[in-house]
Amino acid sequence: MSPKTVGLIAHTGKPGAAELVRQLQGEFERAGIKVQMETETAALAGLQSSHNVAQLGAAADLLVVLGGDGTILNVVSGLEEIITPIFGINIGSLGFLTCLNSSAYQEAVQSIVSGKFALSERVLFDVEITSNGKAGQRTHALNDAVISRGEISRLIRLRTRINGAPLTEFNADGLVVATPTGSTAYSLSAGGPILEPQSGVFVITPICPHVLTNRSVIVGDDSVIEVEPSEPDYPIYLTLDGRHPVALEFGSTVVIRRAEKVLPLAVLPELSFFSVVRQKLKWSGSSI
Prior knowledge:
Order of helices and strands: EHEHHEHEEHEEEEEEHEEEEEEH
Radius of gyration: 20 Å
CATH class of the largest domain: Mainly Beta
Number of strands: 17
Strand content: 35-45%
CATH topology of the largest domain: Tumour Suppressor Smad4
Structural class: alpha+beta
CATH superfamily of the largest domain: Probable inorganic polyphosphate/atp-NAD kinase, domain 2
CATH architecture of the largest domain: Sandwich
Largest sheet: 6 strands, antiparallel
Helix content: 10-25%
Distance between the termini: 45 Å
């Protein structure tokens, strides 16, 4: 895939982001590729644009996102009907979802211009909040859906069903439901397993469970997962991909299923998923 138009989106708070935007713009234009920018990114580089993320996604063949994993998650949340392929350049810290670091921006441009990158189809969540059986707010997520307690330091009870069948009532600080892409994020920190991106499963991981036998559960990605707060007296929140939390009313249910669309995420053919995991988690093997 060699795009004719790329859209640039940067984390405007990152040091060096403005210079990197200008460098990329020059490299792409010299290669004959049209460049468009998201509004705040253009302003960072001293330019003007009226594109929001969704509009830029509709206008571009490829979105080049400058930042870390959080920046990519924010871009995915801003896309609407059209899920545009994303090529990430890391100016963040960890960068599981990015291809290259900012110092290798010329290599990134060469890969894009020559089409020497692959697209890994990443599963998205379709998340819906129902209230007393009535459908309500609905959105998508790339990494995870987290149901957790608020500021009160106490356990919460979350009744969980898989395809309508009861799984258990988790008594914990919260619950993380993650896609394979999100398995290296909060779910991993909570003790969950690492899932290969094309594994075809989801993982449900309790956060600090009261019952020690409550551990991560892996289910097929064709499953419908329902999580329902069991107690009316304490605030419980839903957070998708680290975005602003949404308060869950008693009687509401979070319904999580695989979305019809996927995110085409750029990866370099010479780097396998597990080589990225080894690099990012600093797995060097035994020193003996």
